[in-house]
Write a structure and sequence with these properties.
This protein is an alpha/beta fold and 285 residues long. It has ten helices and 15 strands.
């Protein structure tokens, strides 16, 4: 990719970020708002506008991470989170028609996992899981060096597993903090950084809950490593100790002793993850 570039696109509920990557570095980046409540075509045109700002003749492909279920054969996305009009969008076909290069579309948590495997801390591992800790809990799985998505792009979505009368996501994502103390995760984080003992205690409680999700992942997939991303991962040092203590409840001490759990330090991880979707797909061909 030294003489060519790939565009990575990360679509959120209120913004779209597009970046042109050559090698391991971002050459150009565009972040713009999207009209989340607008009609399907309006949002699509806004996405195209962001891509166009970083697109040039060196671009050989597009990778696109989207918070939704994706038909990986056709590139159709369904029920995109926070964008009601994107109930069913043939995104791959739209991108390829508009820009004239191959496009690969996948779930954003899958993009994070393969991005860490290609560009980040996951490079060292053939079998790893990426967990995104944000407003929700997402998961992406790398098996034998390749992204595993399942039949319907939903493999590894541990957030939906029933747990304590609700789901794992309700306790292991940003939803935990209002439930625990009536404050947002950002507020609790800022207070913890300022030395507030109550806020620090909330993060310690979060670490114990997250450990239960990590145990579920480990029982199911037995990975070498679990890499944490998303906004909550920036507080890893606040919950790492309690997480590790709770992990001692795992039935097989040898397995947990060998398991690596780290927070991502990859800058622009979402865009790099989207680019990695292209890299992963072209490796398979």
């Amino acid at each position: 990719m030294s003489k060519t570039s790939v565009v990575g696109v990360d679509l959120g509920g209120t913004t779209v970020t597009a970046g042109a990557i050559s090698g391991d570095s971002i050459q150009n980046l565009c972040i713009r708002s999207v009209s989340a409540q607008a009609e399907k075509r309006v949002v699509l045109d806004e996405v195209f506008d962001a891509i166009a700002k970083v697109f040039d003749d060196s671009v050989v492909g597009i990778g696109f991470g989207v918070p939704s279920v994706v038909d990986l054969d056709t590139g159709v996305v369904f029920d995109v989170e926070n964008i009601p009009a994107w109930h069913r969008v043939p995104l791959k076909a739209e991108l390829e028609h508009h820009f004239g290069v191959p496009a690969y579309v996948n779930n954003d948590a899958n993009a994070f996992a393969v991005g860490e495997h290609v560009f980040g801390k996951g490079r060292r591992y053939h079998n790893m899981v990426g967990l995104t800790l944000g407003t929700g809990l997402g998961a992406g799985i790398i098996i034998d060096g390749q992204l595993y998505c399942g039949r319907n792009c939903g493999a590894g979505e541990v957030g939906g597993i029933p747990y304590r009368g609700e789901t794992v996501e309700a306790f292991c994502s940003g939803q935990f903090f209002p439930r625990e103390c009536g404050m947002t995760g950002e507020t609790v984080y800022n207070r913890a950084r300022a030395g507030d003992s109550e806020a620090i205690g909330v993060f310690e409680s979060y670490g114990r809950e997250l450990a239960n999700a990590i145990m579920i992942v480990t029982y199911a997939f037995d990975p070498e490593a679990i890499i944490l991303g998303g906004s909550i991962s920036s507080g890893f040092d606040l919950f790492q100790a309690s997480m590790r203590e709770q992990l001692k409840e795992f039935a097989y001490a040898h397995v947990i002793d060998r398991l690596v759990v780290e927070a991502s330090d990859t800058e622009n991880a979402a865009v790099l993850g989207a680019v990695a979707l292209y890299v992963d797909a072209t490796r398979r061909r």
